[in-house]
Design brief:
Blueprint (H helix, E strand, L loop, with lengths): L3 E7 L4 E6 L2 E7 H4 L11 H14 L4 E7 L6 H23 L4 E6 L12 H7 L1 E7 L13
Parallel strand pairs: 4-5
Antiparallel strand pairs: 1-2, 2-3, 3-6, 4-6
Helix pairs in contact: 2-3
Amino acid sequence: MVDIKSVVEDLGGEERRSDTSTDVTFALQAEVLFPKDSHKLQPEAAARIKAVAAEAQKNNATKIRVFGFTDNLGTYEHGLKLSKNRADMVHRELIKTLGSNVTYEVRGYSEDYPIADNSNEEGRKKNRRVEITFPRGAASGSGSTPGT
C-alpha cells in the first residue's frame, strides 16, 4: 500500500509531482523535454530538470531513480531504446547539478507501467514521460535505504 500524501499536476499535465511519506516523484512529459521520437533535450528542458535537482538537494537525496516510459505506438523494442536514452539524457542533466556523489538508477521501461489510457492521444501523451524519484527528507549521510 502506498501512502500518497499529495499529487499535484500543473501546466496542463506537463509536470506531475507525487509525494508519499517516503518518496518524492516528478513525472515530466516527454514532449516538454524532447522533440518527437528523439532523446535530444529541448532547450527549456534543462531548467525543468535543474528545478527537480534543487528539490532533490533540499531533501538531501543520495539515491535517485530516473525511469523513462513511452506510449504503446511503435514497437516495444523501439520504446525500450527510446525510453532508456531519454532517461540517460535526464540523468546526465541531473549530474550537472547534483554531481556524481549521488547513486543513480537509470532504466527505460517502454510502454510498461502506463499511468493513463493508451487508446487516445491525451493518455498516450501522459504515458510518454520521464520520472525522477528520490527519498523524502533523507538525512544526509544516513545509511538507510528504502525498500526496493
